Amino acid sequence: MKTKIGHVAALGLLMITTAALAQSKPVAGEVAEGSLKGKTLTFVSYGGIYQDGQIAALKEFVDKSGVTLLSDGPTEISKLQAQVESGNVTWDVVDTGDFPPYVYCGKLFQKLDFSKIDTSNIPEGQISECSVPAMNYGVVLMYNTEKYKDNPPKSWKDFFDIEKFPGSRALEGSGDLSGGMIEQALLAAGGSVENMTVADIDKAIEKVRSLGPDTIFWKTGADSQQLAESGEADMIAMWTGRAMTAVKNGAKYTPAWQDWLVVMDQMTIPMGVKDPDAAHALINAYVGKSAQETLAKTTSYTPIHKDAKPEVDEITAAFMTNTPDKLKLGYQQNIKFWVENFEVANEKWNALMAGN
Amino acid sequence: MRAIDSRNTVPAVAADDRRRWFRGQAFWLVAPALLLLVICLGLPLAIVTLRSFSEPQWGWQNYAWFFGTPVNLTVLQRTFAISAWVTLVCLIAGYPYAYVMTAVGPKMRLVLILCVLVPFWVSGVVRTLAWVILLQDSGVINSVIRAVGLGPVKLIRTQTGVVIGMAQVLLPFMILPLYSVMKTIDLRLMQAARSLGASPARAFAQVYLPLSLPGVYAGAIIVFILALGFYITPALLGGPRSTMLSTLIQNQVLSLLNWGRGGAMGVVLLIATFVLLALAAPLSRQPHKTGSRR
């Protein structure tokens, strides 16, 4: 009898310690069985194949935790702002672009509790106070191989040099600021990205303008893919995922990886969500190895878990940006500068976009 | 003539009674629509206007910014110019079409109405993307032009492309009001004019055209106002030099969370539209006068 009680006590103690350990040290991708039963989380992202892939990546989390996962979108910061201001936040975890978690940290997005998220496998320099990366991709210079046969462009410098490399150009004009692109234009204009000033933004935008009136500013990813597949532009600054799809569809374009621009989506938790613990648990599950492999397999975006090895075909693998050789060539924008000068940079960029 | 007069032959007393009854009850008939307008249009509009004066602090700052930034004025002017072009294209394409609809038999008319409405049921994004494929440099239209030997014409990412795409989307809004007016025009009036010695062109210009003008004004105003607020079509078919005001508003609100400036832009567009319509109003009264004089 005594031994039996001791047994039970030991077992109980063991269970408590495991629970306590689980509490204090989360493991990416793990969630306690049935821990979120009866709870509901709303995950918001940009829709399409991407969000489907994210939901697929979270399936294990949903099955195990017992949570009801709702999907909403697309992400719009203005909608989120309206929710936060009215005190009725229905979005629990939100996938955003590069800058919002920096610009609105502590205002629209809450500071994350990193004792609840295992970030040990996320590539360096990608975590902020209010966000962890949702995936990685890049903006890469794609050029028409038939046009530039023996003398292909090698870098953004060549992209901005219409004398040595005649031909039409296309770059992103979706409305979101691309700090990395402006920095490359500045470098091509002979400027320096050390100690950038607002005057440097003008100099860079002047360089973009010098590409001429036929420059195309694509609005959507599909738009850029269409440009490559129909051969409308000779050099295109493209998202890696769209570049890959275009190549798969037979576009005669090849990437020049030098200084490809590192881009990521961010996972965030808005201010005032009803159950921050559950939201943290979702993010912790999302950054797990197998979840990231599922995400990469379904969306062909690059996983943000160092050890993730998604099974993908050859072309998809060629456009994954987490290989050591590509990481070496990648270019990180000066997030601090762009966040500090967010409004003025946007105004100048939007004036260019509006034809002025 | 009799066809027109017969509409006004209700005895005067009965009409008076009816009007009196109507004055009492009419409010309740329009109440649901009015309520919807107040809640879904009036209230948000009031909030947007308020925010344009109150953010970031009280004052005219957002309006000062709007009129002090050259790009805003360029785009405002462009928005009105593109809308005017779209209205003109719709009118030129829609007028003969609506006329044919009144002249053919009922079966053919059904086919013509369907031809107008079917594209209307297709999502605007899908239709616009179809235009991308048609208008692009290596697209169908340019292949034909090149085959004829006229060389490639820049259509996509130009104002021409935007006007073509928008005109197609808005065509039903021109054709339907035109048709509803034209079908009430007694075609025997034209025969009468001809029998009195008018040439076909003169009969059209002096009889048919004035009678159809109410439809022209109704269609033109609907198309013009809808065109002012267009967003997807100019964004996808246009380039920087065909950006319209809605895109700038979207940027302010969605990318910069600057509701004050976005609101100010909306208010400016609204007021400019009102002013323009007020200027056009005397024009639309003209045909009524000729009508009563007859």
TrEMBL record, chain A:
Molecular function in Gene Ontology: thiamine binding; thiamine pyrophosphate binding
GO biological process, alphabetically ordered: thiamine transport
Protein name per UniProt: ABC transporter
Listed SUPFAM superfamilies: Periplasmic binding protein-like II
Gene Ontology cellular component terms for the protein in this record: outer membrane-bounded periplasmic space
Source domain of life: Bacteria
Subcellular location, record wording: Periplasm
Keywords: Periplasm, Signal, Transport
Cited Pfam families: SBP_bac_8 (PF13416)
Keyword Transport: yes
PANTHER family, sorted: THIAMINE-BINDING PERIPLASMIC PROTEIN, THIAMINE-BINDING PERIPLASMIC PROTEIN-RELATED
From TrEMBL, chain B:
GO cellular component: plasma membrane
Domain ABC transmembrane type-1: 76-280
GO biological process, one term: transmembrane transport
Statement: the UniProt record of this protein carries the keyword Membrane: yes
Recorded topology in the membrane: Multi-pass membrane protein
Keyword Transport: yes
Subcellular location: Cell membrane
TM annotation in the entry: 26-50, 80-98, 110-134, 162-182, 203-232, 264-284
Keywords tagged on the record: Cell membrane, Membrane, Transmembrane, Transmembrane helix, Transport
InterPro entries: MetI-like, MetI-like_sf
Source organism, top-level taxon: Bacteria
Similarity-based family: Belongs to the binding-protein-dependent transport system permease family. CysTW subfamily.
Name of the protein: ABC transporter permease
Organism per entry: Mesorhizobium wenxiniae
